[in-house]
Amino acid sequence: MLQQTPVTRVIPHLEAWLTRWPTPADLAAVPPGEAVRAWATLGYPRRALWLHAAAVEITENHGGIVPQDVGVLLTLTGIGDYTARAVAAFAYGHRHPVVDTNTRRVIARCVAGQAEPAPPSRTRDLAAMNALLPADVRAAAVFNAGAMELGALVCTSARPRCADCPLAALCAWRAAGYPEYQGQKKTVQKKFAGSDRQVRGLILAELRSTRHPVTDAEIATLWPDPAQLGRALSGLLSDGLAVRVAAGSYSLPHE
């Protein structure tokens, strides 16, 4: 849930999710559409389908216990480097570099002297964090968490609180006089307003709001551009976030 989503938005959804489905087996026992429904407005709803698929895999292949080996975690649907290492480090206490957007920013500024990190690179980012990670397992977990918190609360993207930073005396960016970033920038996502993502969200919200199939006529009322509605609906069907239950009617996935 935390992937590309602020903690404050995640907490209420996480609490409700774990109350309803405290174990992978509990989640695996319901249709995937229920996971999409419970995902609500978190965004990037394919994550809900992936999480449900992972719960099924954990239940069927791992006795209902989330694996602790990074290599095994990476075989689960929807689990990438960040999530696999975060689970291994924070849930099981293993020593692994855990790199998120906030960690990358802290390293870029404090170590590399750059205002912002270069576009993500699995090899480079993990190597950079691993070089800083303490050898002690418990200290490594604290360091991982501390780097994330520092980036989230102090070394923020737009308004870094350098006067409050415990690493201020060590920061290469500060020592260099806060130079502007001149390197390659990652691709900026298009605005949400008016985008196909917004239209997909409107259709998905309509599907979540009812236990009955939603018709083409009902979908047509959600957005004024029929071509954009068609693209959005086709994308949802292709992604498995919606299913056609009859000619001209749709629902959340139920199998």
Describe this structure in words.
Helices cover 52% and strands 4% of the residues. With 255 residues, the protein is mainly alpha-helical. It has 3 domains: 7-91, Orthogonal Bundle (Endonuclease III, domain 1), CATH 1.10.340.30; 101-175, Endonuclease Iii, domain 2 (Orthogonal Bundle), CATH 1.10.1670.10; 196-251, Arc Repressor Mutant, subunit A (Orthogonal Bundle), CATH 1.10.10. Strand 2 and strand 3 form a beta hairpin. Helix 3 (32-39) packs across helix 4 (46-61), helix 7 crosses helix 9 (137-153) and helix 11 packs across helix 13 (226-239). It is globular. It starts with 6 loop residues before the first helix and ends with a strand. 27% of the residues are buried. The model has no long low-confidence stretch (mean pLDDT 94).
Write the layout of secondary structure elements.
Blueprint: H1 7-20, H2 24-28, H3 32-39, H4 46-61, H5 70-73, H6 81-91, H7 101-110, H8 122-132, H9 137-153, H10 172-175, H11 196-208, E1 214-215, H12 216-220, H13 226-239, E2 243-246, E3 249-251
Helix pairs in contact: 3-4, 7-9, 11-13
Keywords: DNA damage, DNA repair, Glycosidase, Hydrolase, Iron, Iron-sulfur, Metal-binding
Family: Belongs to the Nth/MutY family.
Organism: Cryobacterium glucosi
What is the CATH H-level superfamily of the largest domain? Hypothetical protein, domain 2
Q: Which outline best applies?
A: globular
CATH class of the largest domain, named Mainly Alpha
Name of the CATH architecture of the largest domain: Orthogonal Bundle
SSE run: HHHHHHHHHHHEHHEE
Keywords: DNA damage, DNA repair, Glycosidase, Hydrolase, Iron, Iron-sulfur, Metal-binding
Organism: Cryobacterium glucosi
Cofactor: [4Fe-4S] cluster
Protein name: A/G-specific adenine glycosylase
